[in-house]
Design brief:
alpha/beta
Length: 381
């Protein structure tokens, strides 16, 4: 649901504990041991095509260009931040390697050539802030950042706030974009939908929604490239098939020793992707996404239907950047809204299963959308 840290999480371990993050899929990179990772349900699917070569010329654009990435955090016009391995793989593909295909097996990669590890001043318990790479998109220098600081981890708000402040002070961007996977909150959003927002609400347990803090920016995404007739040719339909979704349900029931029918796990068939994923500008109506640091599930009951999606970082970034640096979010629905008839934990586990299988594909469309927005806003010459 929150679309984070479901894959490739056994790369390193630190003193952080993931106990408070269960029973969801919210295990952190660098915080999961081999033994912990081996307990995870990892479904298998048969239809797993590679991410495609990106035909930038079809939309009248040039591919992002790789720049020399210095050992010290550089200045840039934009920071694009993401978290999970599947999200990182998609970002790497679209911004750094779009001239070739990327196989499904790369969704778990824990490192990519050319990215610089950034640890200067990082708390000992965190180890390092993340990895970064500098690219040119149209007229903008863009700092891609794979974060190791995460709201749901120990001292998560403190660390993510500190990282955001480092961006503001050292990188001095004119825009911070948070991109990646998210859980669906609306019945209108099947897997693969991409929602763009500039308003982030911070979930507060046992408090009415009307009291939750909302951080809103004036950033207005430029839709000129996305609205072009050929943009949809760059999108990649999430390769869900009826047989694979049924197989995931069968594997799910075997793993958790349950007997849920597919119709209960897959309400309104939302786990089947559209032939052309929807890209929604939700800034115009001011729809906020919801950020939570704990296990929160949006269901068909409509409990969180006023939100764009549910994820686990963006409102913290927005809170730190407010009145300092413009911010926005490009979130792809990696696991749609859950059936209200399911126990909350089972809904989370099912969301984790869908994200684990398809998170790289949904993240690709989010990365393509991000690139198109930057190409519009920072149009060359």
């Amino acid at each position: 649901m929150f679309g984070l840290e479901a894959e490739g999480l056994k790369q390193m371990t630190t003193s952080q504990s993931t106990d408070s993050l269960h029973p969801a899929r919210l295990m952190l990179t660098a915080a999961v041991s081999d033994a912990e990772f081996s307990k995870k349900f990892t479904p298998s699917i048969t239809n797993k095509p590679p991410l495609p070569v990106v035909n930038w010329a079809a939309i009248g654009q040039q591919a992002p260009q790789l720049l020399d990435t210095p050992a010290q955090l550089p200045a840039a016009d934009v920071v694009v931040i993401t978290w999970a391995e599947a999200e990182w793989a998609a970002l790497q593909h679209v911004f750094c390697g779009s001239g070739t295909t990327m196989p499904y097996t790369k969704r778990n990669e824990g490192s990519w050539a050319g990215w610089v590890k950034y640890s200067e001043g990082a708390p000992t318990s965190l180890g390092y802030w993340g990895y970064y790479r500098l690219v040119q998109v149209a007229s903008a220098k863009v700092l891609l950042f794979k974060s190791n600081a995460h709201y749901a981890a120990s001292q998560g708000e403190q660390n993510l706030t500190a990282l955001t402040n480092l961006f503001i002070e050292l990188v001095k961007p004119s825009l911070i974009l948070s991109v990646g996977t998210a859980g669906g909150a609306r019945t209108s959003d099947p897997i693969g939908t991409v929602n763009v927002v500039h308003s982030d609400a911070l979930y507060e347990n046992n408090q009415p929604q009307s009291s939750w803090h909302v951080y809103t920016d004036t950033w207005a995404p430029d839709w000129s490239v996305i609205s072009g007739k050929s943009f949809t040719d760059l999108l990649f339909a999430v390769p869900t098939t009826a047989s694979d979704i049924q197989s995931i349900a069968t594997q799910f029931n075997q793993f958790y020793k349950t007997t849920y029918p597919l119709t209960e796990l897959n309400p309104d068939n939302l786990n089947m992707g559209a032939s052309t994923p929807a890209i929604n500008d939700l800034t115009k109506q001011g729809t906020a996404l919801l950020t939570a640091d704990s296990f929160v599930v949006a269901t068909t009951s409509g409990n969180l239907s006023s939100f764009a999606c549910v994820e686990m970082d963006d409102a913290v970034i927005a809170m730190a950047a407010a009145a300092k640096t413009p911010f926005g979010s490009v979130r792809n629905i990696s696991d749609p809204i859950q059936n209200a008839t399911l126990p909350e934990a089972m809904g989370g586990h099912w969301g984790e299963a869908i994200y684990t299988a398809y998170g790289m594909y949904t993240s690709y469309n989010g990365a393509i959308t991000t690139a198109a927005l930057l190409m519009s806003q920072f149009a060359a010459g």
